[in-house]
């Protein structure tokens, strides 16, 4: 009886695996066709608008016209510090929409020990839609997080 239970459990898991694998090739094909991610605009992360640069905010686009913002800090974030990227859309049905690394589909703010984060990707094929990327760095001196640096890329397509 134990052998039958194990066999049925294994068969059930194999069936679930087959279902999961069926979706993977389609996702992989879509990802392969949306290659060529490149930075189309960038700006340094400066404190008080003075060098040195503490990181970079970038507006990125792939070959499928998916856009996202990405912040990369020079060093890993220390305790009580964090950074975030924001993607701002101009034009189209979602004009004024702002997405951050913390939005669904993003990979979360840059926190202690990390260097980078990205926002969700937004597909925009209409030429009238433009974007800007904003990067912000925060530090908690004991009274909550306060913004200590910010910069934005040029608004572009």
Molecular structure report:
The protein is built from 1 helix and 9 strands. With 157 residues, the chain is α+β, with helices and mostly antiparallel strands. The chain has a single domain, classed as Immunoglobulins (Immunoglobulin-like), CATH 2.60.40. Strands 1, 2, 3, 6 and 7 form a 5-stranded antiparallel sheet that branches. Strands 5-4-8-9 form a 4-stranded antiparallel sheet, with no helix packed on it. A hairpin with a 2-residue loop joins β1 and β2 (50-61). The termini are far apart. It comes from Kribbella pittospori. Residues 1-28 form the signal peptide. Keywords: Signal.
Produce the secondary structure layout.
Layout: H1 2-33, E1 38-47, E2 50-61, E3 66-73, E4 81-90, E5 98-100, E6 116-118, E7 122-123, E8 130-140, E9 145-152
Antiparallel strand pairs: 1-2, 2-3, 3-6, 3-7, 4-5, 4-8, 8-9
Protein name: DUF2690 domain-containing protein
Signal peptide: 1-28
Keywords: Signal
């Amino acid at each position: 009886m134990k052998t039958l239970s194990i066999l049925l459990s294994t068969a059930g898991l194999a069936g679930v695996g087959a279902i999961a694998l069926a979706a993977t090739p389609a996702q992989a094909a879509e990802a392969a066709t949306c290659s060529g991610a490149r930075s189309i605009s960038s700006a340094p992360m400066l404190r008080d608008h003075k060098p040195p640069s503490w990181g970079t905010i970038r507006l990125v686009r792939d070959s499928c016209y998916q856009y996202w913002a990405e912040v990369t800090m020079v060093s890993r974030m220390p305790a009580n510090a964090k950074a975030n990227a924001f993607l701002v859309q101009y034009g189209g049905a979602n004009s004024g929409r702002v997405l951050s690394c913390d939005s669904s589909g993003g990979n979360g703010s840059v926190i202690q020990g990390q260097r980078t984060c990205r926002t969700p990707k937004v597909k925009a094929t209409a030429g009238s839609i433009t974007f800007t990327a904003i990067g912000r760095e925060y530090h908690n001196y004991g009274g909550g997080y306060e913004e200590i640096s910010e910069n934005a890329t040029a608004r572009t397509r």
